[in-house]
Specification:
mainly alpha; 3 helices
């Protein structure tokens, strides 16, 4: 029977302050939504408790989506995000070819 390797552990508090703050703020947002859906605040171990790992998975997923949209826009991720932030790039409807 194959043995699974011991998972690597990344401690959230070992992240640089800015990334840790981002992780915890997003985790609070996800937890708030999960609590509202469940109708009750979660405690650690509850089915709707949001872990650091789940939060990080959400962040990575969304970063992947942003990268996909940037590539489809023929841009690199950095300039794409900067343009969004600066208001130089806005979402719009595709033009219809007649």
């Amino acid at each position: 029977m194959a043995q699974h390797p011991t998972p690597r552990v990344i401690r959230a508090y070992s992240l640089p302050v800015q990334q840790f703050d981002h992780l915890k703020n997003y985790q609070r947002s996800l937890q708030f939504a999960a609590d509202a859906e469940a109708g009750t605040p979660a405690r650690e171990g509850d089915a709707h408790w949001i872990t650091n790992s789940q939060t990080l998975a959400h962040i990575i997923h969304h970063h992947g989506l942003v990268a996909t949209v940037a590539v489809r826009s023929d841009m690199h991720v950095g300039p794409f995000v900067s343009a969004l932030y600066m208001g130089d790039l806005v979402a719009g409807q595709p033009e219809v070819q007649l």
